[in-house]
Specification:
single chain, about 130 residues, alpha+beta, Nucleoside Triphosphate Pyrophosphohydrolase, eight-stranded mixed β-sheet, 2 helices, 8 strands, about 40% strand, globular, binds 8-OXO-guanosine-5'-triphosphate, NUDIX_hydrolase-like_dom_sf, NUDIX_hydrolase_dom, DNA replication, metal-binding, 8-oxo-7,8-dihydrodeoxyguanosine triphosphate pyrophosphatase activity
């Protein structure tokens, strides 16, 4: 199966976490995710994350500690989701590609409809920050 690496960010501000709803034109439309995107060849996941967050939310982040990598098989592709805690250092996020974004308390995350790969990560975030 084709495998892709995807870096994503758990951005925490004043106890709340930035989450994004995938838009109708995107794969997995209508599901929530942590912002991020595919890691290009010859790119470190941290670099990919900084690049993707500039493109899709117009923000600059500092990448902090890594969280636990999740490997998930969708029907057509295997993804390695590589999460990091991150801190917003410049800009106020705007949903350029997503349907909308929200800041949620960690304890409110589990009830959202998530992309399948994110479920273990959501649990880790609740354990760590909830
Ligand atoms: N950003 C992000 N993608 C995720 C998460 N969980 C998850 O399964 N994915 C999947 O990983 C893939 C990442 O694709 P993307 O569309 O965000 O990446 P990208 O911006 O580089 O895509 P592009 O090729 O359309 O430019 C999608 O299939 C997406 O559904 C997550 O928490 N965050």
């Amino acid at each position: 199966m084709n495998e892709i690496e995807v870096a994503c960010a758990v951005i925490v501000r004043q106890g709340r976490i930035l989450v994004a709803l995938r838009g109708s034109q995107m794969e997995h439309a209508g599901l929530w995710e942590f912002p991020g995107g595919k890691v290009d060849a010859n790119e470190a996941p941290e670099q990919a994350l900084i690049r993707e967050l500039k493109e899709e939310l117009l923000i600059t982040v500092k990448v902090d500690q890594p969280l636990t990598v999740v490997t998930h098989d969708y029907s057509n592709v295997r993804i390695r989701l590589i999460p990091f805690l991150a801190t917003l250092v410049d800009g106020e996020p705007k949903p350029i590609e997503h349907e909308k974004i929200e800041w949620y308390h960690p304890d409110d995350l589990p009830v959202l409809p998530w992309t399948d790969a994110d479920i273990p990560l959501v649990m880790e975030v609740v354990d760590l920050l909830g």
